Amino acid sequence: MAQALEKQSLLDKHVREGAELPVLLMATAHLTGDYSVLRPEWRPTVVYGKLRCEVPPAESENLLSECMRRLEGIAVPAGAPPRPTFDAIHRIATWAVGKEIEPYIPLLAEEMVVGEDPRRPEWSKDEVAPDRPFHVAIIGGGESGIIAAVRLKQAGVPFTLYDKNAELGGTWLENTYPGCRVDINSYVYSYACEPRIWSEYFGQQPDVLEYLQTFAAKHSIYDHAALGSEVKSARWNEESGTWELTVQREGRRESRSHHAVVYAVGQLNRPALPDITGVRNFAGAAFHSAKWNHEADLHGKRVGVIGTGASACQFIPKVAEIAENVSVFARTTTWLLPTPELHDTVPASARWLMANVPTYLQWYRASMLMMQGPGLLDRVTLDPSFPASEIAISEANDGLRAAFQNWMEPQISDRPDLREAVIPNSPVGAKRILRDNGSWIRTLKRANVETVRRGSRRSHRTAWSPQTAGFILWMSSSTGQASRPRTSSRQSRSSDATTGTCTVAGMKIPALTSAGRCPDSRTCS
Ligand SMILES: Cc1cc2nc3c(=O)[nH]c(=O)nc-3n(C[C@H](O)[C@H](O)[C@H](O)COP(=O)(O)OP(=O)(O)OC[C@H]3O[C@@H](n4cnc5c(N)ncnc54)[C@H](O)[C@@H]3O)c2cc1C
What we know:
This protein is of the alpha/beta class.
């Protein structure tokens, strides 16, 4: 009795301190089966991509009491929580989003792993083909390759996972630049079957890497991994019904046969450096953010950054703190989704709720998925009846633009010269939306940071001549896809092709001709 009371008062405390009201309502409705808490007047609104119950304080107290009363005795039950049925998810999600989202319900049902993992294979090789030799190659040990390996393992299908790197982790192994972290909330940017109570809303690179490697180790994926092994080519052999892989490891090439190949090579793991005239003569350190040179000491240096994508937005604020001067070469601008919690830790009370109130964690994840899918899609979809312009494609899209702009304008009220560099002249959603908590514009406003737009190129020609020694030239241009091994059938002429690459529109792709080179020799390597 005393124990139950203690738990109840703990629940009370943490709900009041740390509950996200929409999530609390959803979990309460699901756990109790009492949908009367999903009142129309408590329906959340979308505030900067998140569900928020914007109710007056007195009403908020009422809401909390209603949930607490229903959750009494349920919050810390002995048995496993009930798995939400399709119908329950449908009812709750439709209330939360405020519109019919039936097509998304199967996805949400799979994303909410409560108890049994719905994506675990329901068959095993031993059941379906016990005598048939079947060995799979997975190429790539990032997030995709790891989960593919786990699923094959669960189905009892033998496999080898090849990765060119000496460790698993892919993107999160290779990107070690200062400030590197996810920009999709970690509670969503994690495997549904491996929920974690993250300490930060947007986990930093070491945490994400540790999560992936721990997950791989838990499923003994390292026992099947051929690390430091780059697959150079894959050729289909019609007679044997196998893929013949050429694998390079420690300078030697070996041939391996597999019955199936899973390509999990990613698309952002080979940096494509811009072909800037004279760059080879540049005397300072020059590198891509995906291959951060930790030996380069930036303290007191003049640093040039090319590009203002997601990585640049994360590392420029860090670099600006130590460099003498940072010039940001920005060709285009990107809409920023206001995210005040971007660098915040998750409060202890919120973490307590995730750990102790069954399915609270899953509904938290689901609430964000609802917003990123059905909640956002309408706002970035063209309305043919809307008089489309350069900056909006529908009324809802225009509303989103206005909300973002209203958040940015006050930040530059004292620096109107930055307007062009931070307010995009394109609709929200035309380009990947970045997140910010104010640190980006704060950085651009620093006395030691200058933003160089397309029109101002000429004036910087002298100052940023690549021949000028002592400057550091930084590359943060988008990375390109070059990792996909060459594939061919046995009869194909490309069997004698080399593994060259060429750069097209900033993307590295496998060479286009059977000789392994592009017609334009300048872009081939
Ligand atoms: C800095 C950064 C931040 C990001 N943040 C987010 C985010 O917040 N949210 C989001 O949704 N996405 C984000 N992304 C995108 C991210 O790449 C994907 O989310 C995801 O990590 C991709 O996983 P993957 O396994 O498909 O590919 P990768 O992680 O790229 O893994 C591919 C693996 O294949 C290996 N490989 C490639 N070719 C070969 C070969 N021929 N032989 C052997 N091995 C090979 C590589 O070594 C690598 O380990 C980010 C990307 C970057 C670069």
